[in-house]
Amino acid sequence: MSNYILSYTKIKNNCLWHNGKLIIQSPETVNYTSFLEETYKSLSLSYPKFFKMDALSKLGILCAEQIFADENISNLYPKEKTAVVLSNKNSSLQTDVAYSKTMGDFPSPSLFVYTLPNIVTGEIAIKHQITGENAFFIEPTFNADLLHNYAQLLLQDSAAVLCGWLNIDENSYEGLLYYVAKPLANEEKKTNFIKHNPINIAQLYTK
Amino acid sequence: MNKAFLHNSNIVSPLGFTTTQNFSAVCDGKVAMQNHVFNGTTYFASVIQDKLLDDAFIQQTKLNPKEFTHLEKMCILSVQDVTTHSSINVKSKRTLFIFSTTKGNIGLLENNPAKIPKDRIYLHKTAEVISAYFSFANKPMVVSNACISGLLAIIIAKRLLVDNQYDNIIVTGADVVSTFTLSGFNSLGALSNVVCKPFDKNRSGINLGEAAASILVSNQQQNGVEIISECSANDANHISGPSRTGEGLYKCLQKVLANNAVPDFINAHGTATEFNDEMESIAFNRTGIQSVLTNSLKGYYGHTLGAAGVLESIFCAEGLRQNKIIASAGFEKQGTSIPLNIITRTENKESTTCLKTASGFGGCNAAVLYKLN
Q1: pLDDT at A29
Q2: How many contacts (CB atoms, under 8 Å) link A and B?
């Protein structure tokens, strides 16, 4: 049986879409840190640790929240066999810059711990108790081929892979997470599942 | 089914610019850490002198050293040694370059020399600069996954080779010592101002070190050390500390040591922090391998971050090839709640298999089992 994208969430331009449906929209004049915190509130999340996170982790947590709330996903696949494969362009650069500004004075340990791209992987893993394979790739632009290829390799042994692109720039941000697995036997007929291939993945990113 | 094997390698570190120099320096008990002054503060770290690096770089490449960062020069020297001493065609579509790093050219945030374009702060840009010098046909793959980056890059290489996507993959892991990482680990209270003491009762934290380490991973069996099994897993417990019960590492070990395989020796992560070493002892004990001969190389090199997994895997392969087990520098007294069988003398011993482990921030863990052919 083939692998399918069972759920996906995208956050960009102060909008949040889940499975293609616009869920939250804020005026473009709202800066992205406020947007992320407003989104947290409108989704009624109760996870105070969220406010300690850097923007990259906040972005990842919000995308993942939607996916794991999805009835196609929640607890259907073993969390210990769920992998997380993420990518971006800027690594943790925004937080690196913020930390480096504290260096001359009182270096901030709470900023320093976020100066790695895969901390968001850890935050998502903690929130949803996912303990499978991990990988974080750095790419100049969104690379559907890479994500598709590595997810396919992992799915030989993993039950599911949470994949995506989470990138924070000075004035903009992009988050796309999607969940790949083999549909369970009784779910096979669902028409909204998207075949896992590079073209479809690229479309999730661009459309 | 295709298999993957470790072949030619190189290490550029304060202990030498080739694997042979590094291996023999470590066998002689040499330690790379010294006092160095960074922005007015003295840190105990392992650093390559600029002049030594520039001299070797000019001699080997004829390039202008001012146009490359310290990290890029280390990497180019390292990859060049591997490509010159192997018969692989870097211009083939069946050859891939994987670059592993945590912080890349992070020093550019503070000090960006005129001849270095500002975009070299981006990790993919650094990889492209290295890759362009060698004219690799494929664009580089960049892995940045905290302190498991290097070992994870080898794991990814193995999977791509087994899937027959490539014939040869050069994996380079590299990080430099910078004010950024020094002040950061210092702010966490994790730095030791003496030589670090992995697994020792009196361990007091890590030393940072810099290195570029490269290895050819290929589907060619002859003279290779086989990558038998591999795994990565997340603790899902804490972003900046390991699980107390070693959950993620234990999971990796169960997978990698399937059918209760017992390795001849273990090269552990062994950073010399209280929590890491304790966690490793617990994970080893849960797997039943607590009495296997074990070492950490951090007492020679410090923690080289994104380079560590590659550098230490090179030592695993050389140890198997040369029948050497290497003393765990800095260890005197058992310092974990589960006693481990720490190697206290470098000596000749025939071994066939070796387990390599790594763990890092973000709750990540990785393990690989190597076997001499």
Answers
A1: 86
A2: 144
DSSP conformational letter for B28: T
Domain covering A4-206 assigned CATH 3.30.70.920 in the classification = no
Q: B74 near B116, Cβ under 8 Å?
A: no
| Residue B256 Cα distances to A22, B155, B249, angstroms | 43, 12, 10
pLDDT tens string B99-117: 999 999 999 999 999 999 9
Cα angle B197, B198, B199; round to 5 = 115
State pLDDT tens for residues A28-61.
888 989 999 999 999 999 999 999 999 999 999 9
Set of chain A residues whose Cβ sits within 8 Å of the Cβ of B103: 96, 115
ipTM higher than threshold 0.95: yes
How close A139 gets to chain B, by Cα (Å)? 6
DSSP secondary-structure letter at B115? T
Instruction: Say whether pTM exceeds 0.95.
Output: yes
Report the gap between the CA of A44 and the closest CA in chain B (Å): 23
Contacts of A87 (CB under 8 A, 6+ apart): A136, A137, A138, A139, A142, A143, A146, A147, A164, A165, A166
Within a 13 Å sphere around the CA of B65, how many CA atoms are in the beta-carbon half?
16
**Where do the domains of chain B lie, and which CATH numbers do they carry?**
5-218 (3.40.47.10), 228-372 (3.40.47.10)
Please state the domain extents for chain A.
4-206
